[in-house]
From TrEMBL:
It catalyses: 2 GTP = 3',3'-c-di-GMP + 2 diphosphate. One of its GO terms (cellular component) is plasma membrane. InterPro entries: Diguanylate_Cyclase (IPR050469), GGDEF_dom (IPR000160), Nucleotide_cyclase (IPR029787), Rev_trsase/Diguanyl_cyclase (IPR043128). Its cofactor is Mg(2+). GO terms for molecular function: diguanylate cyclase activity. PROSITE patterns: GGDEF (PS50887). Its EC number is 2.7.7.65. This is diguanylate cyclase. It comes from Oleiphilus messinensis.
């Protein structure tokens, strides 16, 4: 194994991981907040109409509206207090649709007017596909009542305007979902290499830790770092350094399985998360990655290096232990990488299972 001459590695000092909020979590929190407002609004909005129906002697409709208001206030409370969304919005949607249909049979055209806000609730509270299917079923029911109870000139206009409403709501909801997806992708992808960034890492590590503790599915980590990258940058410039990072990410990705995930952890540091992989296999892979970088093809991208210097990587490998948290798992892999740097670089060090001290196998 070639161990390049060089200065001591900077003291590796793994920091306790602060919990990073992922874009998906932010979207979920915002949705829950928004849903809480909708349920509060629905509660307050229908109360005057309960009074109105009461004054007109429609006791059953009054009772139904009060049940609707009570349901919405309970959902809003549970959502606000416990961040748990009862029936995921379906309760409000189905209850309001039922109320509108009942009101249509009772109050004719006036009841039919409430179909518009009821259609809106599908798209405000449900995922696009569910909202579209639900809204179309509701629309069919309203259309049937309109055709049976209204003058055809009015019924046709009601049908046409409701269909337009559904069409616009689908377009708006699709636009929002597509924008959200793109923004999440931008926020979680490293623009230089196309790898996932560390915002995604925490969630992926949590998932692997859960699989280990719940289903005894093993997972391993490889943390790898370009050796003497500062010198490389100083020698060939940052633009060429960037090209090298991109080439490294491409090489690593080509060697990993589809189920593996590659993250850019820091400047010249990458993490490969290998689900369903034992330590021994992760070590074999890390060695393959190390020699893959060391071999001639990859060196071409650094041919301008002055003085001539081989491009190499060092790596630390760790498999998650039973009962271990992901922060400790990550720290063991970090420590193994530090050992690799300390022992001369271009080396793979494995952190053994159930032992706090890493040992060199490379
Ligand atoms: N070109 C380029 N360089 C980067 C990027 N991010 C970090 N770097 C550089 O990576 C270098 C990292 O230097 P060090 O942390 O000293 O590590 P090193 O020189 O690789 O030394 P060892 O890791 O100990 O082998 C610094 O010069 C950073 O400027 C990037 O996105 N592009």
């Amino acid at each position: 194994m070639v161990k390049p001459e060089g200065q001591e590695p900077e003291q590796f000092n793994p920091q306790p991981q602060q919990t990073l909020v992922t874009p998906s979590e932010i979207i979920l929190q915002t949705r829950q907040q928004f849903s809480t407002y909708i349920h509060v609004l629905a509660t307050l909005l229908v109360l005057p109409f309960a009074l109105l129906q009461f004054s007109q002697g429609n006791m059953l409709l009054t009772l139904a509206i009060l049940v609707f208001a009570l349901y919405n206030s309970v959902v809003a409370y549970v959502l606000f207090k416990h961040q748990h969304y009862l029936f995921n919005g379906w309760g409000l949607v189905l209850l309001s649709s039922g109320l509108v249909l009942y009101s249509c049979t009772l109050n004719g055209l006036i009841g039919l007017l409430w179909a518009y806000p009821a259609i809106a609730t599908y798209f405000l509270l449900l995922p696009l596909r569910q909202a579209t299917i639900g809204a179309l079923i509701f629309f069919s029911a309203v259309t049937t009542i309109a055709m049976l109870t209204q003058d055809p000139t009015i019924a046709i206009r009601l049908v046409a305007t409701q269909l337009l409403c559904i069409g616009f709501a689908v377009m708006f909801s699709w636009l929002l979902t597509a924008q959200q997806r793109k923004l999440v992708s931008i926020a979680t992808t490293d623009p230089l290499t196309g790898c996932s960034n560390r915002l995604e890492l925490n969630a992926a590590l949590e998932e692997s830790t859960y699989s280990r503790h719940r289903y005894q599915i093993p997972s391993s980590l490889i943390i790898l770092d370009l050796d003497h990258f500062k010198q490389v940058n100083d020698s060939i410039g940052h633009t060429e350094g960037d090209r090298l990072l991109k080439a490294l990410a491409k090489l690593l990705t080509s060697r990993l399985r589809v189920s593996d995930k590659l993250f850019r952890y820091g400047g010249e540091e990458f993490i490969a998360l290998l689900p369903n992989t034992r330590l021994i296999d992760a070590h074999t892979l890390a060695e393959a990655l190390r020699t893959g970088v060391e071999d001639g093809k990859f060196q071409l991208s650094a041919s301008k290096l002055k003085p001539p210097q081989r491009i190499t990587i060092s790596a630390g490998v760790a498999e998650i232990n039973a009962g271990e948290g992901w922060e400790n798992w990550l720290m063991r892999a970090d420590e193994a990488l530090y050992q690799a740097k300390h022992q001369g670089r271009n080396i793979v060090v494995v952190s053994p299972n159930l032992s706090p001290k890493p040992v060199s196998l490379g």
